[in-house]
Specification:
The protein has 14 helices and 22 strands. It has 449 residues and is α+β, with helices and mostly antiparallel strands. The structure holds ligand MV4. The site of ligand MV4 has 18 residues, from β8, β12 and β13.
Length: 449
């Protein structure tokens, strides 16, 4: 096992990893930017090292600074958390060439799954259902028109280097397909340095269901069941839960088994998520793999009883998975809401500033994963998420009641937050009845623009 790990991240996930390491008896090195200097959570580390200015491009995203800190800190491994460098192949490669373990998948698996067209090829070979669409990249306008007319409109144009909704275009006829194709390719070239695009049938109002998996270095892969992450706006998840409500047990088992087949045939290791969309008739389709630990991992931890961060560290150190699939339960219902410092009156833009008053709810089945405290200053340089409130109860109904109570109990003054929006969502019939899809927040609760 590793004796000393560097945490290449900030905020709540840095604290989550520092806590896991402390429990495992692993020493930690934290890194911080000028904006995070003196932050409370850094005291949980054995050592902390400044890696640059507030702007992430010069600190949390700057590989040479992180590697320098790892050398100075004398660590054997780096945990990247999520965001920043978590899915950066080059970073993983540099870590390992410096003889520092990157706590995540191999470079080969990352690059194969990071390219959506290649990921779809692997999924197809593993008999994982795909949305009908182009066989690989579309090379010409004529080819795109031919495919669209075969599968029927509407279609969705996606960037092979994309993900998380970046550079997608819906086309409902030949004319919008032609313009969308050019726009998507240009956007993809600019954003990812890769203009490659492909086409899929556009599934209207889908649910977003994703499967948590973890794989060891000895060929064993297990899933930790699924999460429903349909409650989102503009590709920002707001609420995630496990198990997914109203998903027939047979469908659920098929989705989870599909995810394991895909991960096995990609030779993927460590923790990851296989993302699917599910249509009204419960047909499910593979969308992409997220090659990292995700924000919403706690709901899977609660229903299974497994500490995913600890397990990531164990498998990265070469330990075999300690359970078989049949020993991984899914008990009760867990729901997470993201507390963001954002201003609903100003287009939900980040709302940096000082937290002048904070009272965090507690009680049976309540978990709050956050690095913030009363007096904490939310810097303007990073994303707006300041914490995650997660509840765990025997039933979904009880979890919703608990979540409502917690949000009523929450006191957070000084900055505007997502709490009022979350309360509204919890009172929506579509949510209470588990009939959410990826469009319901935008359709019913906030303007679409
Ligand atoms: C889709 C889709 C409908 N049809 N693909 C958006 C992010 C990326 N991960 C995949 N996404 C979608 N792909 C087809 N063929 C709808 C979405 C989608 C979505 C998916 C998951 C969660 C939220 C979403 C919000 C809007 C669109």
């Amino acid at each position: 096992m590793f004796q000393r790990i560097l945490v290449a991240n900030r905020g709540e996930i840095a604290l989550r990893i520092l806590r896991a390491c402390r429990e495992m008896g692993i020493e930690t090195v934290a890194v911080f930017s000028e904006a995070d200097r003196g932050a409370d959570y850094l005291r949980m580390a054995d050592e902390s090292i400044c890696i640059g200015p507030a702007q992430a491009a010069g600190s949390y995203l700057l590989i040479k600074n992180i590697i320098s800190a790892a050398e100075i800190g004398n660590v054997q491994a780096i945990h990247p958390g999520y965001g920043f460098l978590a899915e950066n192949e080059h970073f993983a490669e540099v870590c390992r060439s410096c003889n520092i373990e990157f706590i995540g998948p191999s470079v080969d698996a990352m690059s194969k799954l990071g390219d959506k067209v290649t990921a779809k090829e692997i999924a197809k070979a593993a008999k994982v259902p795909l949305v009908p669409g182009s066989d690989g990249l579309v090379a010409t306008e004529a080819e795109a028109l031919q495919i669209a007319n075969r599968i029927g409109y509407p279609v969705l144009i996606k960037a092979t280097a994309g993900g998380g909704g970046k550079g997608m275009r819906v086309a409902r006829n030949d004319i919008s397909l032609k313009t969308g194709l050019k726009q998507a390719a240009m956007e993809a070239e600019k954003a990812f340095n890769n203009a490659g695009v492909y086409i899929e049938k556009y599934v209207e109002n889908p649910r977003h269901v994703e499967v948590q998996i973890i794989a060891d270095l000895h060929g064993e892969v297990v899933h930790l069941w699924e999460r429903d992450c349909s409650t989102q706006r503009r590709h920002q998840k707001l609420i995630e839960e496990s198990p997914a409500p109203n998903l027939p047990q047979a469908v659920r088992e098929e989705i989870c088994k599909s995810a394991v087949r895909l991960v096995k045939s990609a030779g993927y290791t460590n923790a990851g998520t296989v993302e699917f969309i599910v249509d009204k008739d419960h047909n499910f389709y593979f969308i992409e793999v997220n090659a990292r630990i995700q924000v919403e991992h706690p709901v899977s931890e609660l229903v299974t009883g497994i500490d995913l961060i600890q397990q990531q560290i164990r498998v990265a150190a070469g330990e075999p998975l300690p359970w078989k699939q049949r020993n991984i339960p899914c008990n009760g219902a867990a729901i997470e809401v993201r507390i963001n410092a954002e201003d609903p009156e100003n287009d939900f833009r980040g709302c940096p500033g000082r937290i002048t008053k904070l009272r965090v709810p507690g009680g049976h089945g309540v978990r709050f994963d956050s690095h913030v405290h009363e007096g904490y200053f939310i810097p303007p340089y990073y994303d707006s998420m300041i914490g995650k409130l997660i509840v765990y109860k025997p039933t979904r109904e009880e979890a919703i009641a608990c979540l409502k109570r917690c949000l009523d109990e929450f006191v957070l003054e000084g900055v505007k937050t997502s709490i009022p929006l979350l309360k509204k969502i919890l009172n929506q019939a579509a949510f209470v009845e588990g009939r959410m899809d990826t469009t319901f927040v935008e359709q019913h609760l906030v303007s679409k623009t």
